[in-house]
C-alpha cells in the first residue's frame, strides 16, 4: 500500500552492526546556566575591566531598565486582564483570596524576622559599629547616555485597570473584547520572548560587574555578614514552609516543587526584579501542575503584592541598624511597623530596589530613622536586594498552588493543569 503523498519518507533502518544515526537535535543551553555564567563573569571581570568598557554595560543596563519599566504596566494589563476574564464568575473571589494569602504570607515573614532579629541580633552585634557608607547610586559607574522611556501609566493604575477590566469581562458574554486582550497577552509574551529573556543574561552580567567595580556589595556584606547569614537561613526556612503548604495543596513532593522553581529563583537573583522574572516564574509554576488560568492570574499579581522576602529582609536590617546605632527596640512600634510594611509593599514596584524605596517613608515616620540611617538601610538593602526578590518570586509559585487548591470548583474555565505557553530559552 502506497503511503500518502504528504507523508514524509521513513528514516532508513540501521544496518546490523551499525549504530543508529544520531539525533540532530542540539542540546539547549537553558536560562539557568546562562544566568550562572553571567554572574560569575560579572564578578571576575569586574576586578580587571577598565571603566571605559564597563560604562558600555552600564549604558545597556540603563536602557534595559528603562524599557522594562515601560513594559511592566503592559505586562500586568496584558496578563492579568485576560486571566481574570478566563476565570469566569469566581474572579472576584479569586482576587480577594490571592490578595489575602499574599498579605498573610508577607506579614508572617515580617513577624518571623522581627522575633528572630530581636532575639539574636542584640547578642550577635554586641559592640559592633557601622562606618559611613556611600549611597550606591552616588558611586555608580555613569552610563554614556540615557533615554527616558516613561510608561503609559503607573503600576498601581495598571493593576486597578486590569482588575476592573478583567472582572468586567466576567460579567459579559465572551466576545471581541476578550479576544483582543488575549491577543494583547500574546503580544506581551512574544515581546518577553524576543527581548527580555535573551537579554537577561547581559543585564545580569552588567549588574554584577557594576557591583564588583563599585565595591559596595563587599563593603555592606562584610559589615553585616552576621545579618546576611541570618536572613539567608530565614529565607530557606520560609521557602520550605511555603512549599510544605504548596505540596499539601497539590499533593506533590514539596522539595521537587521547590526544585522546579530554581530557574525563577536564579533569574530573580540576577535581576533583582520581580517583574522581569514573571515569565520564568509563570513557566516554573505551570510545570508544578498549577493550571494556566490560575498561574496567569496569580503570578503577575503576586509579583506586585507579595513581597515576603523583601519584608523579611527590611525588617531584619531595620532591627540591625537600630541595634548598632543604639536605638531602643520597642516591640509595639516594631509590630506596627511590620503590619504597615505589608501594606506599603503592595504599592512597591517590582523593579530593583523598589521595595526599600517604598519603605523609606515609614522607616522615618514609624521607626524614627534619620537620613544617615535611611541611607545605610538603602545601601544594605540594594547590595543584597536579589536574595529578597528571589524569595518573593519563588513564594509566588507556592501561593499559586494554594490558590489553585482553594479555588478548585469555584471558578469557571478549564482549570486542569497544562503546559501553557512555553517561553523560549527557559
UniProtKB/TrEMBL annotation:
The keyword Membrane applies. Residues 1-12 have a biased composition (Pro residues). Pfam families: SDF. InterPro entries: Na-dicarboxylate_symporter (IPR001991), Na:dicarbo_symporter_sf (IPR036458). SUPFAM superfamilies: Proton glutamate symport protein. The chain crosses the membrane at residues 31-50, 62-84, 96-121, 152-172, 192-211, 217-241, 262-282, 297-322, 334-351, 357-384. Residues 1-23 are annotated as: Disordered. Keywords: Membrane, Transmembrane, Transmembrane helix, Transport. It is a multi-pass membrane protein. This is Dicarboxylate/amino acid:cation symporter.
Amino acid at each position: 500500500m502506497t503511503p500518502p503523498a504528504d507523508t514524509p519518507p521513513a528514516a532508513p533502518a540501521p544496518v546490523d552492526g551499525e549504530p543508529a544515526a544520531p539525533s540532530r537535535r542540539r542540546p539547549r543551553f537553558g536560562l539557568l546556566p546562562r544566568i550562572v555564567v553571567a554572574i560569575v563573569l560579572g564578578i571576575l571581570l569586574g576586578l580587571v575591566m577598565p571603566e571605559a568598557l564597563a560604562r558600555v554595560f552600564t549604558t545597556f543596563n540603563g536602557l534595559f531598565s528603562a524599557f522594562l519599566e515601560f513594559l511592566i504596566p503592559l505586562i500586568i494589563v496584558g496578563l492579568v486582564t485576560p486571566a481574570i476574564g478566563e476565570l469566569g464568575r469566581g474572579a472576584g473571589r479569586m482576587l480577594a483570596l490571592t490578595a489575602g494569602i499574599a498579605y498573610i504570607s508577607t506579614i508572617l515573614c515580617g513577624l518571623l524576622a522581627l522575633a528572630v532579629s530581636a532575639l539574636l541580633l542584640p547578642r550577635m552585634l554586641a559592640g559592633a559599629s557601622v562606618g559611613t557608607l556611600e549611597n550606591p547610586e552616588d558611586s555608580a559607574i555613569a552610563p554614556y547616555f540615557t533615554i527616558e522611556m516613561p510608561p503609559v501609566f503607573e503600576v498601581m493604575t495598571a493593576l486597578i485597570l486590569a482588575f476592573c477590566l478583567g472582572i468586567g469581562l466576567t460579567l459579559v458574554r465572551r466576545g471581541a473584547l476578550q479576544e483582543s486582550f488575549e491577543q494583547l497577552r500574546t503580544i506581551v509574551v512574544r515581546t518577553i520572548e524576543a527581548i527580555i529573556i535573551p537579554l537577561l543574561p547581559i543585564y545580569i552580567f552588567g549588574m554584577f560587574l557594576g557591583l564588583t567595580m563599585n565595591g559596595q556589595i563587599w563593603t555592606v556584606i562584610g559589615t553585616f555578614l552576621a545579618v546576611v547569614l541570618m536572613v539567608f537561613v530565614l529565607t530557606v526556612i520560609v521557602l520550605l514552609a511555603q512549599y510544605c503548604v504548596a505540596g499539601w495543596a497539590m499533593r506533590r513532593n514539596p522539595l521537587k516543587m521547590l526544585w522546579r522553581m530554581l530557574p525563577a529563583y536564579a533569574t530573580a537573583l540576577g535581576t533583582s526584579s520581580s517583574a522581569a522574572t514573571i515569565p520564568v516564574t509563570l513557566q516554573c509554576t505551570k510545570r508544578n501542575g498549577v493550571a494556566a488560568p490560575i498561574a496567569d492570574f496569580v503570578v503577575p499579581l503576586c509579583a506586585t503584592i507579595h513581597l515576603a522576602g523583601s519584608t523579611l529582609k527590611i525588617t531584619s536590617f531595620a532591627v540591625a541598624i537600630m541595634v548598632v546605632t543604639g536605638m531602643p527596640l520597642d516591640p509595639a512600634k516594631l509590630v506596627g511597623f511590620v503590619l504597615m510594611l505589608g501594606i506599603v509593599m503592595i504599592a512597591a514596584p517590582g523593579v530593583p530596589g523598589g521595595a526599600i524605596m517604598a519603605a523609606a517613608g515609614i522607616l522615618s515616620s514609624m521607626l524614627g530613622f534619620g537620613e544617615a540611617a535611611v541611607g545605610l538601610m538603602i545601601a544594605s538593602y540594594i547590595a543584597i536586594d536579589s536574595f529578597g526578590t528571589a524569595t518573593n518570586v519563588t513564594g509566588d509559585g507556592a501561593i499559586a498552588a494554594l490558590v489553585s487548591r482553594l479555588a478548585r470548583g469555584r471558578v469557571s474555565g478549564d482549570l486542569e493543569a497544562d503546559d501553557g505557553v512555553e517561553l523560549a530559552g527557559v
